[in-house]
Structures are given as C-alpha cells and as structure tokens.
Amino acid sequence: MSINLALILTLLTGLTGVVVALDKFLWSRSGDGGGGSAVRRVFVDYSRSFFPVLLFVLIIRSFVFEPFRIPSGSMMPTLLQGDFIFVKKYAYGLRLPVTESKILETGEPERGDVVVFRLPSDPNVNYIKRVIGLPGDEISYEQHRLTINGEKVSLDQHPDATPREPRFVEKLDDRQHEILITDAGYTRNDGSYRVPEGHYFVMGDNRDNSRDSRFIDAIPETHLVGEAVRIWMHMDGLQWPRWDRIGSKIQ
C-alpha cells in the first residue's frame, strides 16, 4: 500500500495550525488564564512546537526541493539503485500539495531532462525517467536506435565500455548522457510513437531494463513532479556510502 506523504504532512500542518490559532484567539482569552485542561495544554504546547517545523517542511517539499531514493536500475548508468536525489519542484510550475493543481507557470521540460513523475495508472507511485519526446514529436525506437522527427539520434560507444557494462553516449539536441544497452530484462518493445499534446515521451537510460513510455504511454504534463538535479547520498542496503557520488549533478 502506498503512503501519501504529502497528504499526511498537509493534514498534520493544518491540524497543528488550527490548534495554535484556537489557542491564540479563543482559548487564551476564555478567562482561565491560558490554563484549561492539562490534556489541552499538552496538545497546545506540542502544536506550538511542531507547527512551524511542519509548515517549513511542507513549503520546502511542495515548492522547492523534495528528496527521492532511486529504487531500481532503470536509469543506469546515470543513476544507480540506492542514490538519494534532490528534485527541483518548481522547475515545471508551482503546484499545490495533495491536489497537484498548478498555480504558477515557471517552465517546461526540455529534451534530455531527467524528470520525476506520478505514474498515470497509480498516482501514488513516482517514476524517474529521461524526457525523450516533446508534445507533437514522432518517436521511433528500432534495434536500439532512437529516431526523433525523422532524424537518428547520435549514438557512440563510450570509451570505457566493457562487455559487462555496454555503455554508450547518446546526444539529444546539444545535451549528451550515457545509456546502457544490454539486450536483457524487458523486451525492447520497438515501435513508433506520436507524442500527444500536453504529454511527454520518457525513457530510462538502461534501455533494455526500463518500464517507460514504450510500456506506460506518454506522461501527461499534469503528472510531472519536477526535475532531478543532484545526488546527495548513495547507500544501498548495508553497504558503505559511495562518497564519490555525493553532490554529483545529474546530467
């Protein structure tokens, strides 16, 4: 069962805020000298302590940055399982928590952005992939070769590639990144796709091990969470953290 952290955080912030407001404008003026029942005073004291903290966390998490953990290898070699990342929430607009209604336009995804989005079939689940196709694009993926609007995307073997790690360098517009082509895991699901208006075609950098728009269709703009920008920690299970990944910018 998925836990809606945004809903829980919003409810706790609202509850403690209401208690603080009631105490300030009603209970403290009721003539009991601010006393009241012992239980109520404990509730008020805790609310006064937690409300500013909860409000701060809610604002930061909803409108500025939100931390996520990478749960799988679908974005290898760019992101590894166990990476903890920051997602810039204001990259594609400011949205209200819980309802996800956009209240301010701030930008649109660009080809090559690594984005977090809510899975259309289950909005409580977050996925992370790379934007390949913009609204109106024609996308073709055949035999590991990506074509956008009739032009093949540049693909070169990485100089450090090995048989165990078949890395390639892919160039989208003026941005380049590494991908893996392993011929394992998911079937490639080759085919051609047209990106509907208001949607984005996303793919994982681990091309043969990614459940992306080839399987779940294009992602509605309304389901975008933000842009993945930086790794702040890497820890997978009981292993020691990988210090070399901390602070890395996500390309």
Keywords:
3 helices; 16 strands; alpha+beta; 7-stranded antiparallel beta sheet; 4-stranded antiparallel beta sheet; elongated; Umud Fragment, subunit A
**Which radius of gyration do the C-alpha atoms yield?**
23 Å
Tally of helical segments:
3
Estimate the strand proportion.
Answer: 25-35%
User: Which shape, going by the Cα principal axes?
Assistant: elongated
Element-level helix/strand string: HHEEEEEEEEEEEEEEHEE
Number of domains: 2
- Residue runs with pLDDT of under 50 for 5 or more positions: none
Number of E-state strands: 16
Description:
With 251 residues, this protein is of the alpha+beta class. It folds into 2 domains: 59 residues; 180 residues, Umud Fragment, subunit A (Ribbon), CATH 2.10.109.10. Helix 1 packs across helix 2.
Walk me through the topology.
Elements lengths: L4 H21 L12 H26 L1 E5 L13 E6 L5 E2 L6 E3 L9 E6 L2 E12 L4 E5 L2 E4 L2 E2 L1 E4 L9 E6 L2 E6 L10 E4 L4 E5 L9 H4 L2 E2 L3 E11 L17
Antiparallel strand pairs: 1-2, 2-16, 3-4, 5-6, 5-16, 6-14, 7-8, 7-13, 8-9, 10-11, 11-12, 14-15
Helix pairs in contact: 1-2
Short synopsis of the structure:
With 251 residues, the protein is of the alpha+beta class.
